[in-house]
Amino acid sequence: MNKSTTTSANAGLSTECKQGSFQFQGLGTRKVVADFTGGTLSSDGGMLLLRQIDAGLGVTGALAGCFSDRRDQRFVDHSTQQLLAQRIYGLALGYEDLNDHESLRRDPLLATACEKLDPLGQDRFNPQDRGVALAGASTLNRLELSNNKTTRCHKLPHDPAKVEDCLLKMGVRCLPKHAKEIVLDLDSMGHLVYGMQEGRHFSGYYGDYCYLPLYIVVGDVVLWAQLRTSDHGGDEGVVPALEKIVAAVRRRMPHVRIIVRGDSGFGRDEIMTWCEGQREVYYCLGLSKNAVLIARLGPALGDARARRCLCGAPSVRVFTEFEYRTRESWSRPRRVIGKAEVMAEGENPRFIVTNLPADGFKAEKDRERFEPARLYEEVYCARGEMENVLKQQVLDLQADAMSTHYLASNQLRLWLAAFGYLLLERLRALGCHGTELARATAGTIRLKLLKVAARVTVSVRRVHVQLSSAYVLADLFRLCHSRLMAMAAPSG
């Protein structure tokens, strides 16, 4: 009796019981009941806009050309471009984890966006996979790890130099062709690692093991995302990167003026000397303070203290400029701007170094643009906007998810996040300009424009996507659609 009762109880615990419907608090005399019988639905109806912007730019197609497909095509269900589209669209939609694709692979709308001619997956090679159109987590994982394995299971290697050039080419194409001046913003950001990843190193600045990728951005457009170990300074590899970027920019805009901007981590002689040797390339870089610089700023600090005492302001700034050269590390004297700021909390001296002319450029009407105060406050401090771009990379695209073991595959993940951001940024710039989302972050674009409830019906003649009738931004969606459809697909 006891034995029988125990067996029955254990059997009850092991039985999987799925609740068919869910009853909630009633609405007046009506019951409120929910179930999962709504049919084929998607919460990401706006992914069609991502597909359209990709079709206009040719991002996934160009990126697929950086991979070598060594698989036996007789047994291939997913092309390289389809795998990349699935991964990049997933990142743009907020699914940063490969495990998310175990459920997403059943989404016929994502399959449509990834150019699956059979969005329901009925033509799969393996019978057990039929009904599931897209790749699973293991297949996408092999794509990311292909450069680190030599077994027969890893046959989709990529050329890192080609991927790097692809991101640069796509980014440069997004710059206004007739611009007279562009600013290349440099920054490095610590991406923490939580295991024994290849190339991990302890950073005293971040107080943990991390990578230190180099980002180079123009406005809201990412041109460069290079994964580096943190056992080097922030200036590591900057000159080779600038050589490639400036050459690519010159091919599109031969006569544009280029200003290289960055914090004190980039105020190195190698970078400044390279800029000084180029045509129409200038720099405006932070400069680490030292005893000599603070001494040169002494009169300005005294002036700021006196002014604050007289006016009683919370803080007073006085700017000055002088020529400065280090004892050994600099090859020549350079123009330095000093900010003497006195606040209630104390003194806050800061310095920048630049080769921008104090009297401005002759062809411009505003010849006082680079005088000390304006140069610091209007030109140098504007680099803070670039940090907002990096925040979107990390917070919205999860670019810091460095969870694979190998440096090469983590670099690929960094690039994929950059391409995902590129699609969202172009969707904002080309589809949302002049609207309430014109300056929205990538996360807001995703939440308000891409997360749209949709019913998907697949027939012989069409894929019918019925978007929610209650969608509050339906007019904006229509406007974005009309603008994106007007884009011409890239040649080739």
Q: What is the helix content? A: 25-40%
Low-confidence region ranges: 1-14
Please give the alpha-carbon distance between the first and last residues: 77 Å
- Structural shape: globular
Count helical runs.
17
Give the biggest sheet.
Answer: 9 strands, mixed
Oligomeric composition of the shown chains: single chain
**Mean pLDDT rating:** 90
Structural class: alpha+beta
The structural domain count equals: 2
Q: Report the strand count.
A: 17
Instruction: Indicate the radius of gyration in whole angstroms.
Output: 28 Å
Task: Determine the strand fraction and express it as a percent band.
Answer: 15-25%
Description:
With 492 residues, this protein is an alpha+beta fold. It has 2 domains: 42-65 and 67-157 and 432-456 and 475-485, no CATH class; 161-395. Helix content is 38%, strand content 19%. It is built from 17 helices and 17 strands. Strands 4, 8, 9, 10, 11, 12, 13, 14 and 15 form a 9-stranded mixed β-sheet that branches. A hairpin with a 4-residue loop joins strand 6 and strand 7 (208-211). Helix 4 packs across helix 15. The longest helix has 25 residues, at 407-431.
